[in-house]
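Researcher: Please translate sequence to structure tokens.
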Amino acid sequence: MTQSEIKNYLITYFKGLCASTAKERHLSIDTSQVAVSIEKKSNVPPGVTVYNALLNVFGVFADGAPVTLNAEIKVLNDINAKNSYLVFIASPHKKTDDIWEQLYKIQNDFRMPAR
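Model: Translation complete:
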């Protein structure tokens, strides 16, 4: 999966999530404001692809206010099954916050399903 494909996927996903949830919760939001910036992470081992992302979305599970999420997307490719997995971790907290230790553990513990 390319950087552009992941960015487009995230925009589509979060616009849909925000619109659907806001409608159900009777919140007024402007999904044209959903935005994603993404860049390839440079300090990773060879053969590993990870992207840093910044997502401007809405807190539709709370009050609908704008929320900025720090995110990281690790791409795992299962060549034999011809599948790709995106391990997505995110938090509104800066990556220096303690929560990121837990998120990185989840990311690193993920294993592709056995076939």
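Researcher: Any highlights?
Model: The chain has a mean pLDDT of 93.
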